[in-house]
Every structure is written in C-alpha cells, then in structure tokens.
Write a structure and sequence with these properties.
Oligomer: single chain
Number of strands: 0
Helix content: over 70%
Order of helices and strands: HH
Number of helices: 2
Shape: elongated
Structural class: mainly alpha
C-alpha cells in the first residue's frame, strides 16, 4: 500500500513539472472574463426570475 502511495506521488510530481502555468497577465485576463460572465449570467437569471414571478402573480391574481 505504501509503495502505491509513493508511486502515485512520484507520478503526480512528474506530471506537475509538465504543466504550463499561465502568466500573471493571462491569469488576470481570465479572472476578469469569469467575473464579467458571472455578472451577466446573474443579471439574466434575475431578470428572468422577475418576469416569471410577475407572470405567475398575474395568473394567480396576487
């Protein structure tokens, strides 16, 4: 069991050396895109929720 764990950790370390990490500018750009996309999706879901709530209230007469 201990040998399997050592082998796993050794392979993990070897794979991590192959990883190409993003530059600081790439990371900042990607973060901005994620924040903007999250805001847009949140806004869209909020608007759809308000519209559906209005429709349901009118149908139920509230």
């Amino acid at each position: 069991m201990l040998e399997k764990i050592k082998g796993f950790l050794s392979e993990t370390k070897a794979e991590m050396r192959k990883v190409t990490w993003p530059t600081r500018d790439e990371l900042i750009g990607s973060t901005k895109i994620v924040i903007i996309a999250t805001f847009v999706v949140t806004l869209f879901i909020g608007i759809v929720d308000q519209i559906l709530s209005l429709i349901i209230r009118r149908l139920l007469g509230w």
